[in-house]
Structure formats: structure tokens, C-alpha cells
Amino acid sequence: MNSSKTRIKKHVKKHIPKDWLCELRILYRLTKETILDIHRTGIVNLVIITTMAAILTIFASFFRSALSISSFAHELGNVLEISVYLKENSDANAAKKRIKEFEHVENVTVIPKAASWTNLKREMDLPDMDNPLPDTLHVKVDKPENIELVFKDVKQLSSVEDMSYAQDLAKKIEVLNHIVNTITVFVVIIMAILTITIINNTIQLVIQSRKDEIEIMRLMGVSNWYIRFPLIMQGAFYGFSGAIIALLPLNFVQSGLTHMHQFFMVPTPVYAQNLVIAVMFAMAVLFGAGGSFLCIKKHLQV
Questions:
Q1: pLDDT tens for each residue of 253-291
Q2: DSSP code per residue over 3-64
């Protein structure tokens, strides 16, 4: 029975002449019908849009915070240095040249023991005695997460007596950055699941209410795209509207983060807010339209 029905549909579609003006009229009518469906959905539209706005606000806030934390981590990483204390009678310039050859090393500064001793005597009241300090190298690493690698490489040098760096601070920066990035990815996954579920239930109701009409259009030879398009646009509308509402709380988050950057005198990431807004709108529309498309594939054989 189903195969016979399918053959009839194909036969009807094959012999219907192409009339682009007619198809444009159908597209216009379906778009108008989509607007009417949104209007008929009533208060449910508000629930869907506000729910999506809340989800998008959470995502955008975490994403924007992740960019700021990455900026703080980068700035803190720039001031983190490894202090290398050389053995007596070691050639500081030779050690500097050797360390600069290591991967992830950005710069090496030599602090002669005479300069260190002079500065120390200037700050403290010390008795007249021989200089006990060693020559010191300050090694700057490109990223905080690479400090441990460079530390192990430098430690193997025979001219090195001892080494130190703010290990706890470096690890805390790395852990914090990793946690925020992980939470952001987790929020994106939850956002996708919730959005697709909400859109799926809404579009399913629309499909059920227009099931007979859609079946007639298919028998008349209307393109599958013209059947999908209004439903996909309805899902995209929910996502876009939710993103617009989410802009308001996102501005408060942006303002708070900007003040925090100014307080700690850390530059705000360039184009961070514009990037977050662009990604938020893109994901909102994509997930909204994608939820509708999946629902159509599930409930309609088109």
C-alpha cells in the first residue's frame, strides 16, 4: 500500500509543470502561515524564548568569562619566571646561550652576583662580608603551562646549582583556565540538548496541526524544501529572539569584567564582546533551526 502510494506521488510530481511564480506564492503563503502559527502558539512562545534566553545567557557569560580568564592567565604567565642559580665559577653567558636553545623559552636575563649583592645591601643592613650570592638567570617562558617542561630541561644542566619559580601560582592558573574552558564546553552541550528538545516539542505540535495540509501539498508536487523551510524558520526565530533578550544580561557581565580588567590593569581581550555576541547568535539560530530540522526528519518523511 505504501509503495503504491509513493509511486502515485512521484507520478503526480513528475507531470506537474514547473511554475516558479506559483512556487513563490506557495513560499509566501507558508511563510505567512509560519507567522500565524507563531501567533497561535500564544504564551508558549514567550516560555520558549525566555528559556532559550536564559540558556544563551549562561553560555555567553561563561564564554565571555573564559576569554577574560585566559587573558589574565596570559598576563600572569608573562610575569612568571624561573630563577636559575648557577654554580660557583660557572659561565653565566654560556648557560644563557644554552637555555635559550630550549623549546618554549622566550627570553633569558643574566643577573650578575655582584649586582644582586649590591641591591641586597641597599635594602638590608648587612655586615662587611664576602658576596655569598650566585649568578642568577631569569628565564621567561612563552606560556604558563610550559613552565614545568622548561624547568625540567634547565635542571639537567651541569652548571645549575638550584632553581625556583612560583609553582603553585602557575598550577592554579592552569587549573582555573582548564576548569572554565571545560564548563563552557559542558554548557554548550547542555544548551544544544535543551534547545533541540524544546524546539522539537514545539515543532511537533505545529506538524500535527498541519499534517493534512502538508500531505496535500506533497501530493500536489510541492518541493520538500518548501515544506521544511517554514518550520526551520520558526525554530530559527525562537533562537534569534532568545539571543536578542540575552544581550541585556550579557552587557552587565561585560561591564563587570571590564571593571575587573581595569582594576587589575590587565588589557581586555580585543573584540571579546563582539566575538561572544556573534557566536551566541550563530549558535542560537543554528540550534533553533537544527532542532526544527531534526524534528521534521523524525516526524515527516520529507
A1: 989 988 888 887 778 887 888 999 999 999 888 888 887
A2: HHHHHHHHHHHHHSPP-HHHHHHHHHHHHHHHHHHHHHHTHHHHHHHHHHHHHHHHHHHHHH
